[in-house]
Design a protein that fits this description.
This is mannose-1-phosphate guanylyltransferase. The chain has 7 helices and 31 strands. By secondary structure, the chain is of the alpha/beta class. A 7-stranded mixed β-sheet has the order 5-4-1-6-11-8-12.
């Protein structure tokens, strides 16, 4: 089987992190986002992954080359010269996706994290005999999304309602599809939307089916959702009794710590924290609801909550960093500084406190 991952463009919503690496390579729970997906695809027998990308393809490919060998999966790129929406990239990659097997192929949105129930999705696709399957997920506020209206017992999709004013349902497109090769005959090579142009036509012919995604789901394309997504991901690890979760008297709730990180005396870490490789957490540090990326040093008695600390940054002694502060790569927060929601671009030194959410250039 094959899979196409829609990588897309600049990742502006996750700046300043995406000023250093393309968004799919930003770590999430100590692993580049896209690697979570590629490993899950490999586990259900996918042998080739195509990345649909229009920005820095060489950076992505160079990075993923080492994983090709270790995972035993072929990874290549399909590069757009202009943004082609969510369906155009399928037409562009047509020759890479079609072979003689006639097997269906996966299409994934690269920002989405979940438990990736691809095995169940393959079984569902085979069982209904339609042309296309999509995953849907239940949300509390469907008015912010495109809602999928479906026949509950069979999963047959009736229609799509974009940002409904009146309640029509609470299931939204989760960004995972399994498509027969014939779907490619419906897509022209131009900027086009799979959700608005391709799927409604397949649904009108009663050949589109939706399966409700078991477990958690999050689009982690922006900081607030990234931090929520980490909580859901760690909850899922806990539920599955994962050995990846850290334990000890200094750990509260769900925490993952890379084995190469060093943690000092008297720290309190958690809940919902990820600490990357090579990090140094000095004594008396308090961390909660945050991601600390590789190579970071957090000095004595600093307190960090609800924030993302970018690669190779330092947070000074007694500093307090909170409320969705995002530090880009190689940012240095001086001792006793307070950051309330500061978004700091790479290679900056912060010598005075950031009292209200703002961007520091």
């Amino acid at each position: 089987m094959k899979a196409l991952i829609l990588v897309g463009g600049f990742g502006t919503r996750l700046r300043p992190l995406t000023l250093s690496v393309p968004k799919p390579l930003v770590e999430f729970a100590n692993k580049p986002m896209i690697l979570h997906q590629i490993e899950a695809l490999k586990a259900v027998g996918v042998t080739e992954v195509v990345l649909a990308i229009n920005y820095q393809p060489e950076v992505m490919l160079n990075f993923l080359k080492e994983f090709e060998a270790s995972l035993g999966i072929k990874i290549n790129c399909s590069q757009e010269t202009e943004p082609l929406g969510t369906a155009g990239p399928l037409a562009l990659a047509r020759d890479k996706l079609i072979d003689d097997s006639g097997e269906p192929f996966f299409v994934l949105n690269s920002d989405v994290i979940s438990e990736y129930p691809f095995k169940e999705m393959i079984d569902f696709h085979k069982s209904h005999g339609g042309e296309a399957s999509l995953m849907v997920t239940k949300v509390d506020e469907p008015s912010k999304y495109g809602v999928v209206v479906m026949e509950e017992s069979t999963g047959q999709v009736e229609r799509f309602v974009e940002k409904p004013k009146l309640f029509v349902g609470n299931k939204i497109n989760a960004g995972f599809y399994l498509l027969n090769p014939s779907v490619l005959d419906r897509i022209q090579l131009r900027p086009t939307s799979i959700e608005k142009e391709v799927f409604p036509k397949i649904a009108a012919e009663k050949k589109l089916y939706a399966m409700v995604l078991p477990g958690f789901w999050m689009d982690v394309g922006q900081p607030r959702d990234y931090i929520t997504g980490l909580r859901l991901c760690l909850d899922s690890l806990k539920k599955n009794a994962s050995p990846k979760l850290a334990s000890g008297s200094h750990i509260v709730g769900n925490v993952i710590v890379d084995e190469s990180a060093k943690i000092g005396e008297g720290c309190l870490i958690g809940p919902d924290v990820a600490i990357g490789s090579g990090c140094v957490i000095e004594s008396g540090v308090r961390l909660s609801r945050c991601t600390v990326m590789r190579g970071v040093r957090i000095k004595k008695h600093a307190c960090i909550s609800g924030s993302i600390i970018g690669w190779h940054s330092t947070v000074g002694q007694w500093a307090r960093v909170e409320n969705m502060t995002i530090l880009g790569e190689d940012v240095h927060v001086c001792d006793e500084i307070y950051s309330n929601g500061g978004v700091v671009l790479p290679h900056k030194e912060i010598k005075s406190s950031i009292l209200k959410p703002e961007i520091v250039m």
